[in-house]
Amino acid sequence: MESANGLYSVQEFNLDTKWLIDPKVLFVGPKIGEGAHAKVYEGKYENQNVAIKIVHKGDTPEEIAKREGRFAREVAMLSRVQHKNLVKFIGACREPAMVIVTELLLGGTLRKYLLNIRPRCLDMHVAIGFALDIARAMECLHSHGIIHRDLKPENLLLTADHKTVKLADFGLAREESLTEMMTAETGDIPLDGSRALQHNHIEAWREEAL
């Protein structure tokens, strides 16, 4: 259950047993990323290579409550939505630490990829493919009433062949009603034929380019 302020309480949140991982068989390897509230490691779980996100508990009661709520919310959303352009959720546990396990994407972040190809520009075909992957991921989330709220190159991961982009890190995501999603601070977002036409145009452009 989500509270009025948009945060899950760990006491209220119950993880479905099919998503509950056994930390005893979770092997944590080298660190591959770090944020303000969590570290990400490469590892293994039941003979598959995985990414392991370990969430810092915080130092004060306020920090602990906030991070526990964020963890519960992220797990709830990851377990509810699956899509080829969203990082695949494998499972989670709360003890002995707050851990989220997902598929391991060896292509790195989109930010790192773009920096590595400098001074060359991103090929047009590739750029269109990446843009469509991101749009599909966001469309999937929005269709489930989820706002990611942290879309940036650091949270976009590439497959090993650098052909597919997947959206990761749901730590700041929120569930919103359809009315809330369609009404932003800047005003209403029109739902008319123009958006569909733009979408069709992009798809046609991609087919033409390929």
TrEMBL record:
Protein name (record): Protein kinase domain-containing protein
Ranges for domain Protein kinase: 26-210
Gene3D superfamilies membership: Phosphorylase Kinase, domain 1, Transferase(Phosphotransferase) domain 1
Organism, as annotated: Nyssa sinensis
Binding residues for ATP: 53
SMART domains cross-referenced by the UniProt entry: S_TKc (SM00220)
Keywords assigned: ATP-binding, Kinase, Nucleotide-binding, Serine/threonine-protein kinase, Transferase
TM region positions: none
Key word Transferase present: yes
GO MF annotations, alphabetized: ATP binding; protein serine/threonine kinase activity
Entry's family note: Belongs to the protein kinase superfamily.
Catalytic reaction(s) noted: L-seryl-[protein] + ATP = O-phospho-L-seryl-[protein] + ADP + H(+); L-threonyl-[protein] + ATP = O-phospho-L-threonyl-[protein] + ADP + H(+)
